Amino acid sequence: MSRSRTHVLRVDLDAGETVRERVPEGWRRDYVGGKGLGARYLYEELSPGTDPTAPGNALALFVGPLAGYLPGETRYAAVTKSPLTGGFLDSYAGGDFADRLAGSLGDCLGLLVTGAADRPVRVEVEGGRARIEPSDAWGDDAAETAARFPDAGVACVGPAGEREAAYATVASDGGDHQAGRGGAGAVMGSKRLKAVVARGSPPAVPDDLTALRDRDAAAYGRDPTGEWQAAGETVETVDYADEVGILAAEGWTATGFDGADDIGVEAALERATGREGEDQTVPGGFRIDTPDGEVVPRGAAPITLGAGLGIDDFDRVVALCGVCDRLGLDVIGAGNAVAWAVRAGEAGVVDCPVSFGDADGAERLLEAIAAREPVRGLAVDPDLPDALADGIDAAVDRFGGADLVPTVKSMALPGFDPRAAVGVALAYATSDRGACHRRARPQDTEPLARPDRSPADQVRDVVGEQNARSVLWSLVVDDFVGEAVGADLGAEWLAAVDHPAVDPAARGDDAADGPVDALARTGERIWTLTRLFNAREGLDRADDALPEPLRTPAADGTPGVDADAFDRLLDRYYAARGWGERGLPTPETLARLGLAGIADDATPLDEGPIDPAAARSDD
Questions:
Q1: Cβ neighbour number for residue 231 with a 10 Å cutoff
Q2: 299 Cβ partners below 8 Å, 6+ apart?
Q3: Is-contact 33 64, C-beta < 8 A?
Q4: C-alpha pair distances (Å), 437 with each of 181, 443, 532
Q5: Which residue of 29, 177, 260, 309 could cross-link 500, Cys pair, CB 3.0 to 4.6 Å?
Q6: Which of 223-232, 536-545, 589-598 has the lowest mean pLDDT?
Q7: Mean pLDDT of the chain
Q8: pLDDT tens for residues 295-317?
Q9: Distances (CA, A) of 524 to 55, 239, 463, 530, 531
Q10: In terms of Cα–Cα distance, which of 157, 77, 80 is closest to 121?
Q11: How confident is the model at residue 344 (pLDDT cuts 50, 70, 90)?
Q12: What is the largest CA-CA distance in the chain?
């Protein structure tokens, strides 16, 4: 396989054709791969107002220039316009499919899928080429679809994606891995693309990179993050969140859950039959046997399907996770949708007899949402599942109940409650894809540092982490490995493969900066580009608002986030980014980041940035 990934495979489902095309050199330099390159293609090729589930939307399945070489799990990025938020979406998954995709693409950075087929199809990738084949797997769940191709890696949509549920996933490895948030699976389903099948073997690490990989893998094994992952993987987050007081429970009515110990890492260790990648330096998720097959639950399962739904039975939580994985539903979106239904039923907004702690009722609701059909055997409003398949905000528009479960840009929140850590609220509100706990992670530091985190600290941390992860997710590095060994943002690795992002000659005016500074600016450029995309779709400061449920105290007495203090924090954030009062980039900022010639006339801008001194007036 070529070490230089310089092309993409364009899959035109309207024409039934695939072609290889070279990525412009400047795009590779300025946007790298993964998230950045996907954002550049979306901004270039989509018209404002494109319906996310119409043929005019594009779906990029991209890797990075170092895919298959880096330590940790190989990952890919699914980048598209979200049917849930109407804005930019990037979602990630690892595992066997990602590894085989990297090995199947040859010198390509990924697939760019456009148009829509007139009947179900699959795309097969091997040897740097792609072909479109008919698919008879429509109607199969993720596990059934993968079982059809035992000698290949498979990413597919389940029934939820086929029915275009707005938080449907792209499920890979039979459902063990999910490109989850924001509805990339709905876009894939709308194109009648049932599956992508990667036929190649994982890429071999070149001899001259082996020592670098071994060094960083060993360093990660010794790093506190690596030790944490080896001990408990992300399932441990439910224990942590409960301990530090940020675990949202029972539909965001409480902060903390009495049953957290019963659904946390000790329960996983007791039930697990093994771990993913047990031969790796740091193993992956816990494998749990259930009557319906093996499930690999991540931290979101005990948080959102357990504490969030008041269920303290680990086996039932894992079973609910398995339902979501096989149907292709985002666990966080689905868990919050059920929580909203429970609270709306309690409030008399809809007919829904399901209560917190009712695992059977939750399972029936999940199945009905994925099918967009009435709930079997329960006196639930027959229109509720179809409405909830389009997201909580869609259900609110149809039934009411706006102040029950919080969302940002129509995306349900992960279960870390900002009422106990306002920096988390800032990270959620300013995330480019909607509420996200991975773009920045103040939940890891702020609860332990209170009350020492100043507004300046909170803004600096969120901005810095958003920029850094924009680079790392363009490399598409394993998330946790990137945090631990990516202090130079991948500069050493990129230099080892002669990538233009760190080549002084290729960077031109940036050549005076070192490679790490150049990559830091690359991260800011990518983050700002996604803001331009969202601005063109009509998103601005109003969409960065603090959700109303978080402005009020929880039922257990945890005080709400101070709205005025949050608005001042948002001003600080915009000032730090060089954006204006509407939360939009300015011409000056675009010029500094090399984006001045890219922003089109349909993209609104702020004339000038917020005055940093005025934004600091609360000091």
A1: 11
A2: 233, 234, 235, 236, 237, 238
A3: yes
A4: 11, 8, 22
A5: 29
A6: 223-232
A7: 94
A8: 999 999 999 999 999 999 999 99
A9: 31, 33, 9, 10, 11
A10: 157
A11: very high
A12: 68
Is there a contact between 340 and 393 (Cβ–Cβ < 8 Å)? no
The percent of residues above 70 in pLDDT, for the chain, comes to 98
From its phi and psi, is residue 95 left (phi > 0), alpha (psi between -120 and 50) or beta? left
Token digits for 134?
């008919």
Instruction: Specify the DSSP class assigned to residue 167.
Output: T
pLDDT digits (tens, 9 = 90+) for 523-544: 999 999 999 999 999 999 999 9
What pLDDT was estimated at residue 617? 65
Give the Cα-Cα-Cα angle 463, 440, 486 (nearest 5 degrees). Answer: 90
pLDDT in tens, 416-468: 999 888 888 999 999 999 999 889 888 887 776 656 678 898 999 999 999 99
Take residue 170 and report the two structure tokens written for it. Answer: 């792209």
The pair of structure tokens assigned to 400 is 């009411």
Please, are residues 472 and 489 in contact by the beta-carbon 8 Å criterion?
yes
Residue 536's pLDDT is 98
Which structure tokens are listed for 456?
Answer: 């300046």
Distance CA 183, CA 530 (A): 17
Determine contact, residues 466/573, Cβ cutoff 8 Å: no
**Alpha carbon separation from 293 to 306, 318, 325 (Å, rounded):** 20, 11, 11
Residues 6 or more apart whose Cβ sits within 8 Å of residue 532: 43, 585, 595, 598, 599, 603
In angstroms and rounded to an integer, the radius of gyration of the C-alpha atoms of the chain is 23
**pLDDT on residue 1:** 42
Measure Cα distances from 317 to 152, 268, 302, 359, 475 in Å. 30, 11, 6, 8, 33
Question: Which two structure tokens, joined as six digits, stand for 606?
Answer: 């702020």
| Peptide bond connecting 500 to the previous residue in cis, omega within 30 degrees of 0 | no
Q: Return the half-sphere exposure (C-beta side, CA atoms, 13 A cut-off) of residue 95.
A: 22
β-bridge partners, 170: 179
| Sheet strands side by side (includes 59-62) | 17-22, 7-12, 108-114, 59-62, 75-81, 88-94
Lowest mean pLDDT across 4-13, 108-117, 277-286, 514-523: 277-286
Q: pLDDT per residue over 326-341, tens digit each?
A: 999 999 999 999 999 9
Pairing of strands 7-12, 108-114: parallel
What is the reported pLDDT for 481? 87
Answer yes or no: are the C-beta atoms of 301 and 321 closer than 8 Å.
Answer: yes
pLDDT at 512: 62
Check residue 330 and give its pLDDT: 98
**Calpha distance 225→223 (Å, rounded):** 5
d(CA 347, CA 263): 28
Token code pair at residue 465:
């982490």
CA-based angle 469:466:509, to the nearest 5? 80
Give the other-Cβ count within 10 Å of 397's Cβ: 12
Q: Coil, strand, or helix at residue 497?
A: coil
CA neighbours within 13 Å on the CB side: how many for 22?
A: 4
List 22's β-bridge partners, or say none: 7
The tokens describing 345, both together, are 């039923």
pTM metric for this prediction: 0.96
pLDDT, position 445: 78
Q: What values do phi and psi take at 163, rounded to 5?
A: -95, 10
Q: Tell me the residue ranges of DSSP E strands in 381-509.
A: 407-408, 411-412
Instruction: Note whether 97 and 154 are within 8 A (CB).
Output: yes
Nearest to 333 by CA among 156, 142, 89, 114: 89
